[in-house]
Amino acid sequence: MRAFFSIGEAAKRVGVSVQTLRHYDKLRLLIPSQQSAAGYRLYSLRDCERLQSIRALRELGFALDVIAQLLDSKIDPSNALELQLAAVEAEQRALKRRQLVLKASMAGERHAVLARLQRKHVLAKLDRLEREHFLATNLTWRPDDAPANQAVWRAAVFDLPEEMDDTQLEAWIELAEIAADDGFRETLERQRQSTQGMDPTALANFGEAFQRMLTGALQAAREKRRPDDESSQALLDDWVTSLARCYSREPDAEFARELISHHDPRISRYWQLVSKLKGLPVQLTFEDATNWLLAALRARLDKKPVARR
In this model, does residue 134 exceed pLDDT 70? Predict the structure, then answer.
C-alpha cells in the first residue's frame, strides 16, 4: 500500500476535483501531510480518510467551517447533527411549499401563468393576521352584520392557524383564490341581501333547523340513504319549511327549484377548505351534505310538490 498520493491521485481516489483539494488546503481544512522535493502536495491515507469525511459531511449540507470544527473535535457532534437535521427539515418544508405554489400556478391559461405564480407566491407568504385580513376584505365582512351572521363570518374568515403544514397551505391557496373570485363574492352578496329584514325569530329557528339538516344529511350520506325515501324527505321538509318562513315564502315546488338553481358549488368547496385549513377531523364534508340535500330536493320535485305545513 502506497504511503502517499499526489493531489490528482488523492482527488481521484475520493471523487473530488483537484481544485477542491487546493481550496481545502487554502482554508486549512485539509492540509497535505507532506510535500515533494519539488513542492507538490502529497496526501497520506489518513488525509484521504479525512477527505472522505469532508465529502460525506458536505453532501449532507454541513458548512465548511462546521466541518472543520467537527473533525477537529471543537464542537459536540450530536448537537451539530441535530442542528443540521433541523436545517434539512426546514429546507424540505420550504421546497415542498415551492412545489405547491408551482403546481398551483400551472393550472389555468398558459399566458397568465407568471401572474398566477406571483399571486400564489404572495398568498403563501402571508401570516395569520394577513390571511384573515385578506379573507375579510375579499368577502366584505362587516362588523355591523346581524348577530346571526357573525358566527358564520367567524367560522369562514377568522381563527385561522398561526402555522400551516403542507396540506393546510395547499388548502389556503385554493381558498384564497375562491374568496377573490368575483362570481363567488356575488353569490355571497346575494345571500347576505336575502337575509336582510328577516324575522329574527324565524331566522333563529332556521339556524336550529339548518344544524339538524346538516347533521342528518351527513348521516344520510354516510349511510348512503336514498334521498327519496320517507325519512330523507321528512328531514328535507323540516329544513325547507324553516327556510321558507324566513323569506315569507311557501315551501312549494317553485321555492325548491330556486334553492337548486341558486346553489353555488364553490360555497361547499369553500367550507371544505376551511375545514382542512383549521385541521378539523371531518370524514364527510359540508359538500357531501349539500350534494345529498340537492339530490333530495330533485327527488322531491320529480315526485310531487313540497308539502306545506
Answer: yes
* Cβ-based neighbour number of residue 258 at 10 Å: 12
Backbone angles phi, psi at 227, to 5 degrees: -70, -10
Q: What cell does 260 get?
A: 337548486
pLDDT above 70 coverage of the chain, percent: 82
Cβ-contact 291, 221 below 8 angstroms: yes
Average pLDDT over residues 152-168: 79
pTM, two decimals, is 0.53
Give the residue ranges of DSSP H helices in the chain.
7-14, 18-26, 45-59, 64-71, 77-106, 113-125, 128-138, 147-157, 166-179, 182-195, 200-222, 230-246, 253-261, 265-277, 286-303
| C-alpha grid cell, residue 165 | 403544514
pLDDT at residue 149 in the model: 60
In the DSSP assignment, the letter for residue 4 is E
- Angle, alpha carbons 261-266-270 (nearest 5°): 140
Residue 136 reports pLDDT greater than 80 = yes
What is the distance of C-alpha 63 from the center of its chain? 32
Looking from the CA of 216 toward its CB, the CA atoms found within 13 Å total 19
What average pLDDT score do residues 203-211 get?
64
Question: With 60 as the cut, is the pLDDT of residue 303 above it?
Answer: yes
Sort residue 40 into left (φ over 0), alpha (ψ -120 to 50) or beta: beta
CA distances from 17 to 4, 9, 145 (A): 18, 10, 69
Task: Give the pLDDT mean for 91-111.
Answer: 72
Angle formed at CA 44 by CA 39 and CA 45, multiple of 5 degrees: 160
Task: Sort strands 4-6 and 34-35 into parallel, antiparallel or unpaired.
Answer: unpaired
Q: Report in angstroms the alpha-carbon separations of 159 from 129, 213, 235.
A: 9, 25, 31
Q: What cell was used for 155?
A: 367560522
How far is 134 from 126, CA to CA, in rounded Å?
A: 9
Q: Is the pLDDT of residue 24 over 90?
A: yes
